[in-house]
Amino acid sequence: MQTTDTYDVIILGAGAAGLMCAAQAGKRRRRVLLLDKAEKIGKKILISGGGRCNFTNLNVNPAAYLSQNPHFCKSALSRYTAQDFLSLMRQYRLTWHEKTLGQLFCDQKAPAIVEMLWAECRAADVALRLDTEIERVTHDAAGFDLITTQGHYHCTSLVIATGGPSIPRMGSTDFGLRIAKQFGLKNIPFSPALVPFTLTQEMLDGLFAGLAGISTEITAECAAGAFRENLLFTHRGLSGPAMLQISSYWQKGAAVRINLLPGKPVFTWLQTLQKQRPKAELKTVLAEVLPTRLAHRLCETLFPNRPLGQYGEKALQAIAQQLQAWEITPAGTEGMRTAEVSLGGVDTRELSSKTMEARQVAGLYFIGETVDVTGWLGGYNFQWAWSSGWCAGQTV
Ligand code: FDA
Known about the structure:
Elements: E1 4-12, H1 16-27, E2 32-35, H2 43-47, E3 54-57, E4 65-66, H3 73-79, H4 82-91, E5 96-98, E6 103-106, H5 110-123, E7 127-129, E8 134-140, E9 143-148, E10 151-160, H6 175-182, E11 187-193, E12 197-198, H7 201-205, E13 215-222, E14 225-233, E15 237-239, H8 241-247, E16 256-259, H9 266-276, H10 282-286, H11 292-301, H12 313-324, E17 326-328, E18 332-333, E19 341-346, E20 364-366, E21 374-375, H13 380-393
Parallel strand pairs: 1-2, 1-10, 2-7, 10-20
Antiparallel strand pairs: 3-6, 4-21, 5-6, 8-9, 9-10, 11-19, 12-15, 12-18, 13-14, 13-16, 14-15, 16-17
C-alpha cells in the first residue's frame, strides 16, 4: 500500500514566492515540504534581469502594481519591504547596484539569489522534491491530500506558488488557477503582460520599414499607464522597456500614444529654429534630436520634408503634434511566448491581504504571480513574490 508523508505545510512551486514562504514557515518550526515539477529550483530567478536578477526596486509602492483591487498589495508590501530583502542580502554578503529608475541588480548574479534563498530553506529544515507532478489535490476537515508522481502527501496548510503561464517553454502553467477553480474561488484569466507589441505586415513594410534596431527615449501612454523609457523598433513590432511597461495597460484595438521628444516644447523649439535657421531642412534638425534613420523616415512618411522657413504656423503645429502624440495601434502582442509576467490570477477578493489565505478555504494559500497582482518592469514582480511569500510564511 502507498504510504503518505505528512507535513504541516506543503508549498507547490519552488520559485521566488515559494522559496521565501518555505524559509519563513520553516523558521517557525513548521514541517515544510517544497514540491516542484521542474528539475531545479528558482528557474525564472536564474534567467531574470539578463542573469543578474533585478530583485527589487527602491521605489516599490502600490501604484506600481496592476490588479482589479489596487489596495490588495498594500499590506504585504508594507510588511516585507525592499529594505527587508536588502537586509537579507547583507547577511549573505551579497551586494547590488542600481541600474536605472531604482532597479536593483545583484552584483554576484542571479544564482547567488537562488543560493541565498535555498540556504535559508536548508537552515529551516525545509524538505524539497523536484521533478514532481501534482496529479490530484483533495481536501477534508483534516487538511489536504496530494497525489503526485513521486508519492502521496498530506498537509494542514497548502500554499500554491506555481506562478503564471508566461514563457511556457520553461514549463510555466496556469496550475494555480486550476486549483483556485477546483476550490470554487473566482479568478481573473491570465493574459500576457510586459510583452513586446507586434505590428501588421503593412505597417512593417510601410512607415516602420528600415527602423528595426533603433532605440530612443520616449514617453508612452495608454489607458492609466504612462512611462518615460526607451522604445526599441524591432523586425516584428515595438519593444524596449517603455513598450513592455505600457503593454500591461493595453487592450486589443487601443492606440498607444508616443511622445518622441519628451520634455521638449516642440512647437516653440521649431519656431525658434525657423527664425534662426530658415534654410535648414526639417529632417536635418530632427536628426539632431532623434536617431537619424528615424528622423528621415518620419519626414518621408508622416510629414513633408522642407526647409523650415517654408512651413506655416499650422503646419509646424501639426508636426509638433505628430512628434509629441504619435498614435500607433499595435496589431497585437507577442503573447505568453515572450511575456515577462502575466496579468490576472486568483481574484484578490477571495484572499486575506494580510496572510494570502483563501477566505472560504481554511489552510489554502496563494502567493506570487498566481495572485491577481502584477508589477511594473524593474524588480517590482520579485518584490511582490518576496512580500506575499513572506506574509503567508508567517501564518501557514
Ligand atoms: P515562479 O515562476 O518564480 O515560480 C513558480 C514555480 O512553480 C516554478 O518553479 C515552476 O516550476 C513551479 N510550477 C509551475 N507549475 C507547477 C505545477 N503544476 N506543479 C509543481 N510546480 C509547478 N521580475 C522581476 O521583478 N525582475 C526581473 O528581473 C525579472 N526578470 C524576468 C525575466 C524573464 C525572462 C521572466 C520570464 C520573468 C522575469 N521576471 C522578473 C518576473 C518574475 O520572474 C516573476 O514575477 C516571479 O518569478 C514570480 O514568482 P513566483 O514564485 O510567483 O513564480
